[in-house]
Amino acid sequence: APSPAAVTVPAGSVLTIRLDSTVTSDAAPGTKFTGKLVADLVAGETAVAKAGATVHGQIEQSKQAGRLAGKSQLALSLTGVELNGQLQPILTTNFAETGKGTFRKTARNVGVGALVGEVVDDDGGAATGAAIGAGVSLIKKGDKVTAPAGAILEFRLSEAFTTPAN
């Protein structure tokens, strides 16, 4: 039988994930987290990773606002995706969020260009955002930035990777 052909997942490919646990701006940079793919990761016509595959990530930047000044910040990136029982290292753009004293549109990209939008309700309750093609749920209490378990976040590969076909 011929060996499976290699499949290259191009830079710019979208990974939409659902967080397994809550991640907050008071956690240290380097803190690890996991999530699950919401949709298949595809390269051309080939599904490289199926929806539900585990992804690994880490906090790239976190900062808790001071008592009198400053803004809380939280920047996350993905570091790997589980393919065929093995962890495939990946590099992605960051998902970043900055806390504000007043609730308004605050999502921005740190890195190479993930396009993420967020709309926050005015009564200080849960924030509901929109990522391109996927919803993002973020909660802000004061200046703390929280991505709760179950939040859907979007990342883009910043470098292509090659893996054997399934």
What would you note in describing this structure?
With 166 residues, the chain is mainly β. The protein is 0% helix and 51% strand. The chain is built from no helices and 16 strands. It has strands spanning 6-9, 14-19, 23-24, 32-37, 41-43, 46-49, 54-63, 73-83, 86-89, 95-98, 116-119, 127-131, 134-141, 144-147, 152-156, 161-164. The strands form 4 sheets. Strands 2, 4, 7, 8, 9, 10 and 15 form a 7-stranded antiparallel beta sheet that branches. Strands 3-14-13-12-11 form a 5-stranded antiparallel beta sheet, with no helix packed on it. It starts with 5 loop residues before the first strand and ends with a strand.
List keywords for this structure.
single chain; about 170 residues; mainly beta; seven-stranded antiparallel β-sheet; five-stranded antiparallel β-sheet; 16 strands; about 50% strand; elongated
Explain briefly what this protein structure is.
With 166 residues, the chain is mainly beta.
Oligomer: single chain
Let me know the number of strands.
Answer: 16
Shape: elongated
Beta content comes to over 45%
Kindly, what is the distance between the CA atoms of the first and last residues, rounded to a whole number of angstroms?
14 Å
Note poorly predicted spans.
101-141
Order of helices and strands: EEEEEEEEEEEEEEEE
Number of helices: 0
Gyration radius, to the nearest Å?
Answer: 17 Å
Main pleated-sheet profile: 7 strands, antiparallel
The overall pLDDT, averaged over residues, is: 73
Roughly what percent helix? Answer: under 10%
Going by helix content, strand content and strand pairing, the class is mainly beta
